[in-house]
Amino acid sequence: MDIKIMIAAHKPYWMPEDACYLPVHVGHALHTDTNLGFAGDDTGVSISAKNPHYCELTALYWAWKNLAADYAGLVHYRRYFTRREVRDVEARKKEILTAADWERILDGAPVVVPKKRRYFIESNRSHFNHAHHPDGLDCAEDYIRTTYPEYVPAFDKVMNRTWAHMFNMFVMRKDLYDAYCAWLFEILAAVETRVDITGWDAYESRIYGFVGELLLDVWLEQNGIAYREQNVSFLEPQNWLKKGGAFLRRKFLPRSKGD
Questions:
Q1: How far apart are CA 97 and CA 82, in angstroms?
Q2: Which pTM value belongs to this model?
Q3: d(CA 213, CA 169)
């Protein structure tokens, strides 16, 4: 198998040496004077300059348009698919899936996604609305209802779930990867023309990356794509108290456009 898994990165960082991984400097069109020693997402056909709003999806787009492989995927420079979760952060590097691991896993499933992220007390839709400005997801829904009405039941089902496959991370057989990207970026392009993000802070301006996280499950659901869930590990310590506090603030405190 020819497997190419992009590692979205924007600064120097440790990288696995396995040949299946391809570090990509996302947003390189905006930082051409910076050389991280990684491939840039601004060669060939690209949307690299939109990285502040599309986040890691600029690498996803670049691979769709320019990368030839049997399987393609995306991880983050601090977040990887791993065999298992271990407590020691440094030891997590040794659990990152290798090319041999990927060949075995992909032999049994055409798509690999992260293990479910569960919200328990909230649906995907309510969580999104508490965490972000709802405009982006509302607009994506309107476009789907108008242009892809056959997707509406899958969209509603995913939005009402209390779990999702997050982070825009996955590995897919390339024909499926291409089909997903064609659908995803059409919808995000429509959102881009219809939602005014003027005055939004840097975090909320990453609107298209946030919306894309939930659209993956809609596409998988509608097309009946078989997938395998795989553990994901973060390579830095997590402050769960801080994360929990931020979640509660988003849920119960009113927010303005600039927040």
A1: 5
A2: 0.93
A3: 9
